[in-house]
Amino acid sequence: MSTANRETPPPAAGRAGMKKELPEHFKDYRHVWVFIELERGQVHPVSFELLGEGRKLADKLGVELAGVVLGPPGEATWHAVAEAFAYGADLAYIIEDPLLAHYRNEPFTRAMTDLLNTYKPEILLLGATILGRDLAGSTATTLLTGLTADCTELDVDADGSLAATRPTFGGSLLCTIYTINYRPQMATVRPRVMAMPQRVDKPVGRVIQHKLAMAEEEVVTKILGFLPDSQSAKANLAYANVVVAGGLGLGAVENLQLVRNLASAIGAEYGCSRPLVQKGWMPADRQIGQTGKTIRPKLYIAAGISGAIQHRVGVEGADLIVAINTDPNAPIFDFVHLGIVTDAIRFLPALTEAFTRRLSPHNRDKLAS
Amino acid sequence: MHIVICIKQVPDSAQIRVHPVTNTIMRQGVPTIINPYDLFALEEALRLRDAHGGEVTVLTMGPPMAEDALRKALTYGADRAVLLTDRYFAGSDTLATSFALSQAITKVGETFGTPDIVFTGKQTIDGDTAQVGPGIAKRLDLLQLTYVAKIASIDLDVREITVERRSEGGMQMLKSRLPCLITMLEGTNEIRRGSLDDALRAARSQIVKWSAADAGIEDLAKCGLRGSPTVVKRVFAPTARAEKAAQIDTTDKTLRDLADELIAAILTRQPALEHELPFDGAA
Ligand SMILES: Cc1cc2nc3c(=O)[nH]c(=O)nc-3n(C[C@H](O)[C@H](O)[C@H](O)COP(=O)(O)OP(=O)(O)OC[C@H]3O[C@@H](n4cnc5c(N)ncnc54)[C@H](O)[C@@H]3O)c2cc1C
């Protein structure tokens, strides 16, 4: 992805980079790898989403799909390996080492680059999470290979190269990027952009164990502590099945209660557009969109949201999008499935009430408690 | 203490329009700004300088007009600005960008004093990759501390730094060593207004302008398109959804009826939601 300004025409010599004759020493790079992100004993679900996508790429290329598990010695690490098989990996590369108990850039970059240099995959996919981005950037630079961030679509070309499509300019445009002449081809994908694959019942796969060539003394950065986000207050928007969100059209911070009320009536998560975070009306982890969360719920209800491109890219994966907006020409009506042109401030309470009427008494009690 | 901060001039992406026929970005009239994420890093750099003494050098790679962004950074209180500009940099991807910037940082170090900390923003709003910071760190063999929410302490004598860093599910407290590269998280502070003195100084300041050669970059093959392993093959607009949204007709209906109608329409389209939403089935 170009980060420089492209207004000046590139020097003619630069076009030589487009030539697609893979240097000899890259020709034996084969297979698709997915980094299985493991932190505090938990596999990040984005790893499974990537295994689903990696499976398709591997099948098209006629190669194997591998998961890469870096973790401390013990059960959690092996559980991650089993999970990788359950979501489609043919084999797993695993490095067990106490240095990999908690994420630090130095040992993880070393582990990853060692594996890549030793086993030479064609493609490496990572989640565009905090950890994934930290690791991907330093790994790609160490190997001096290409890395395409935040892809929304992955495919392989007729000639076998990875075609990585990502939004650019805040989502106004998409671009397809190739890594020419270098291996591995690396890409990151945000959580919830790819669909979750089916879990296999009796997973099997080969395990290849590797050692970390590093000692604690070589790692400069030390972890002094970890402060978990308090579980209760934390929004799990990305993985919610139903999401209700409010935008600037709600007019005042008090009216956000209407969104929260609807959400709690139907057991949904709630979120918002960016201006509400900027105004301090909602915390940043509730923001949906390009610079917030990507969501993929079965139902998304947007109230008083205009549907700017930066918001759109975060919600497009929803199965059913419903918009409530007073302006029939609001851009949101260009991409939602169901629209209703009405005042959200008046309509949200009616909708909450109508939903509540349909709830079974049992569920009503459960949600109220 | 010498702090170098890398910033980028970006088009204000909220105001970008795409040409309906050619699918290219229409830049005319689109204002440029300092990448908003970089301002958090800049403010942090200024605070550290104010607390510990020293200088803040702001550095950007870009076209000549990127000078505006640097001058703006000077009005906030940066001490010196360096513009790395050369047609050889055009078309740089993140790897080539990190190469050019790291070379320029080395030159800045030789010219104005070795940096103790290199700052970047978390990511840019046009490229959005969050890769240039880690790339620079690797190129310069600096320790990398990304997504830093807070610099808890710096001890210049023993050259130690402790930071709070955002990670999945919580905050990591890390102790590391100087020099290091920090990418700053958003929302960590608020950029200062800048004093009148700074504004006057910024207006008068000479911005240091370096070409690739000035910055001591010998290997031009590592710059621009040639130095970029990734190549943009195709740029296109997202496809519009074929069918328009089905509109619920609101004429002559009570809110209550409208709400029931909307719920019915939702369930017709997504019957599976019956199980997702805690209904008892009967309306
Ligand atoms: C770099 C960058 C990143 C960004 N990232 C994001 C992001 O991640 N997420 C995001 O959401 N935005 C993002 N934005 C901002 C985005 O461009 C829009 O500005 C934002 O989404 C608009 O929010 P909104 O729809 O709530 O407000 P507005 O655009 O002000 O729209 C309000 C809407 O409410 C309607 N309305 C008014 N009154 C009522 C009423 N009583 N009932 C019903 N409807 C009513 C209006 O018709 C209007 O359509 C980003 C912008 C930039 C530059």
TrEMBL record, chain A:
Its cofactor is FAD. PROSITE patterns: ETF_ALPHA. One of its GO terms (biological process) is fatty acid beta-oxidation using acyl-CoA dehydrogenase. Keywords: Electron transport, FAD, Flavoprotein, Transport. InterPro entries: DHS-like_NAD/FAD-binding_dom, ETF_a/b_N, ETF_a/FixB, ETF_alpha_N, ETF_asu_C, ETF_asu_C_CS, Rossmann-like_a/b/a_fold. Pfam families: ETF, ETF_alpha. Gene3D superfamilies: HUPs, TPP-binding domain. Signal peptide: none annotated. SMART domains: ETF. FAD binds at residues 273-274, 287-291, 304-311, 325. This is Electron transfer flavoprotein, alpha subunit.
From TrEMBL, chain B:
Keywords: Electron transport, Transport. GO terms for molecular function: electron transfer activity. InterPro entries: ET-Flavoprotein_bsu_CS (IPR000049), ETF_a/b_N (IPR014730), ETF_b (IPR012255), ETF_beta_N (IPR033948), Rossmann-like_a/b/a_fold (IPR014729). Residues 22-219 form the Electron transfer flavoprotein alpha/beta-subunit N-terminal domain. It comes from the Bacteria. Gene3D superfamilies: HUPs. The keyword Nucleotidyltransferase does not apply. It holds the Pfam family ETF. The keyword Electron transport applies. May play a role in a redox process involved in nitrogen fixation. FixA and FixB form a heterodimer. Belongs to the ETF beta-subunit/FixA family. This is Protein FixA.
